[in-house]
Amino acid sequence: MEIGWMRNQRQRQVLVFFVLLSLSGVGAELGPYSVVEETERGFFVANLQKDLGLGLTEMSTRGARIISQGHKQYLQLKVQTGDLLINEKLDREELCGSTEPCVLHFQVLMENPLEIFQAELRVKDINDHSPVFTEREMIVKIPENSPLGIAFPLSNALDLDVGSNNVQNYTISPNPHFQVLTHNLSDGRKYPELVLDKELDREEEPEIALTLTALDGGSPPRYGSAQVRIEVVDINDNAPKFGQPLYEVHIAENSPIGSLVVTVSASDLDSGVNGKILYSFFQPSEDISKTLEVNPMTGEIRLKKQVDFETLRSYEVDIKATDGGGLSGKCTLLLQVVDVNDNSPKVTVSALTGPIPENLPEIVVAVFSVSDPDSGDNGKTISFIPDDLPFLLKPSVKNFYTLVTKRALDREERPHYNITITATDLGTPRLKTQHNITVLVSDVNDNAPAFTQTSYTLFVRENNSPALHIGSVSATDRDAGANAQVTYSLLPPQDPHLPLASLVSINADNGQLFALRALDYEALQALEFRVGATDRGSPALSSQALVRVLVLDANDNSPFVLYPLQNGSAPCTELVPRAAEPGYLVSKVVAVDGDSGQNAWLSYQLLKATEPGLFGVWAHNGEVRTARLLSERDAAKHRLVVLVKDNGEPPLSASVTLHVLLVDGFSQPYLPLPEAAADPAQADPLTVYLVIALASVSSLFLFSVLAFVAARLCRRGRAASLGGCSVPEGHFPGHLVDVSGTGTLSQSYQYEVCLMGGSGTSEFKFLKPVIPNLTSQ
Ligand SMILES: *[C@@H]1O[C@H](CO)[C@@H](O)[C@H](O)[C@H]1NC(C)=O
Ligand SMILES: *[C@@H]1O[C@H](CO)[C@@H](O)[C@H](O)[C@H]1NC(C)=O
Ligand SMILES: *[C@@H]1O[C@H](CO)[C@@H](O)[C@H](O)[C@H]1NC(C)=O
Ligand SMILES: *[C@@H]1O[C@H](CO)[C@@H](O)[C@H](O)[C@H]1NC(C)=O
Ligand SMILES: *[C@@H]1O[C@H](CO)[C@@H](O)[C@H](O)[C@H]1NC(C)=O
């Protein structure tokens, strides 16, 4: 701009100069002189006096002077000598700019006479300016892969100097890609042109900085430089490329949705859109689409749903990276699902036998398998059952187990077992599954019925009503079902003659015992038989128990008077001396009762007497004694009726008639029995042998009492002649009732009975049982 302005200035000055010239109408008459610009003041240019051919002083006398255009006086004239000197430094560029040659016109004016001479001064250029680039930095955008030889014009440099001092040549800093050519413009100026020598690759070198130097033709040359920044413009010549061709990733199953699987990354050497990458799955399977999602911008791949190792253990998918120019690259994602112990073992019972019979050794109870879909330790299982059970877990083929019994089972001990099979895996944490199996033990008839008692004792009263329930037996069976159903029965009696079946019966179902007919204590005091209990097993088992039926006595027998005999051929008459003391033992009523116990306790009382008050009867023993002294006045014959009554309820009784004859004589005082005379062999007491034989004829339940009483009244000093009683003499051996072929139970008792006395204190007393074969008297 400034330069342009200066150029305008100069043009104006030159224009003025030419106007003046044309006014004067004269051409250059002096010169041309020349001077190099920037010459110092006082420099000698020419001697005008000599050039004008004037005399020595003529110039001064004629008042010669220099007229210059413009304000500055570049020249001075020494009028004395006529020397033309430089008055002020000349700057060619200021004076002429680019105009060449640079000519300054001036006039030499002389007065007296007026004379004007045209003169020229040429100002010669020196190289005092360096080339200058108006742009300190030039930016050149060149697409990569541009063809070789392509040229890019650059801005030129300016140099105020002219001619060869102006810019002559351009050079560029050494580089492999470019050279610079210098071109001529029509006005002679030169401009640089950048020419591509070697292909550009933006991805390799996106920017190249060069220094452009302009040289002028001075000697030495001056130069100026500018920066040339070459920006290599991208073209989409690179496809996106993944950092690795295969991404192998492990992810734990059950990872939450949204978990980051991996971030894939591709790079594109291109820039801008050409380098902008979008990620996507390449032809994903349906599984992949459901499971994974990729962030197109960041390449983050996340879970869309949970992965399950047991369903799918790995996923493989290609991932595509596409740049804005449509080029793409691929990589492969291999996703391995890592197992997590998320499955408990599964117990599958494949065979379960029904109830197992007791008493059998090792039996297979169940077959089952254990599975765990996890892998590794997570899928390894161990199984066990509680060891306090009589069962054993036996591993069989792969993951199969059999549950067997350890030993024979006893249903009665335990009828069923709840077996908990526990299967755990070896993962962390361990997962476990329990499976319960109930094993029923089925019954085998291995227990006989057992009676609640080994023997039963039942009481009954005799004379019962027929079909009376007399009691029950009971047996239980520890087995089950039919094996425990008990049937009762009467067992055949040991005595084959006992008509058991006609006496008692048993309810087969409940063991109730019934008397089939009325029992007679006097015929059968006790009955012993065995009952059986049998179960319904096969084979059946049975057991037995003893039943003892004790018949209870009822008062069904009246007292029976043994003495005195009532209907003997000679009625018994007791003789009593009139001199007898009070309390004299007249007789003794002896009676028996077929019953027993209280029913057989007899008491005696005097029912009737010819002379009341003369005789008394002892209630307990039936002794008949005198109650007072006898006198002559008392009648000789007396008749007494004695009532014998038992203690039953109601009481039964019998009466007996006694005949007493009073005779004259003395009574012998009663002599107590000496101690030593207690022995019946030495003493001679009133001994009564009483043999009672009781016999019963079982078939008819008839009771008969055959009583043989041998009463030997052996009162000292009194022989049998005293009494007129018809008493069979001699010893009666124990009477044994014939055991006939009809089956007769017999019992025989023989007692030695001693009636001691002679006085009122004597007693009728059982001494001892008599053993028949020892009584040899
Ligand atoms: C320009 O400069 C270059 C390098 O310095 C040189 O090779 C070449 O000859 C020069 N050209 C001219 C016309 O001086
Ligand atoms: C440019 O000019 C120079 C002299 O200034 C000359 O030597 C050269 O041949 C010219 N080049 C062209 C291409 O005209
Ligand atoms: C076995 O399990 C059943 C049902 O759960 C239960 O009724 C029974 O009492 C259990 N038996 C044993 C011996 O635990
Ligand atoms: C198995 O039996 C055990 C013990 O009786 C009980 O605690 C558990 O709940 C049962 N398991 C199943 C699945 O019935
Ligand atoms: C005695 O009389 C009874 C009935 O009064 C009779 O049964 C019995 O046979 C008789 N005894 C004798 C020996 O005559």
Automatic annotation (TrEMBL):
SMART domains: CA. It is a single-pass membrane protein. Residues 74-133, 134-242, 243-347, 348-451, 452-561, 576-671 form the Cadherin domain. CDD domains: Cadherin_repeat (cd11304). The chain crosses the membrane at residues 688-711. It comes from the Eukaryota. It is found in: Membrane. GO terms for molecular function: calcium ion binding. Keywords: Calcium, Cell adhesion, Glycoprotein, Membrane, Repeat, Signal, Transmembrane, Transmembrane helix. GO terms for cellular component: plasma membrane. This is Protocadherin beta 16. The lineage of its organism: Eukaryota, Metazoa, Chordata, Craniata, Vertebrata. The gene is PCDHB16.
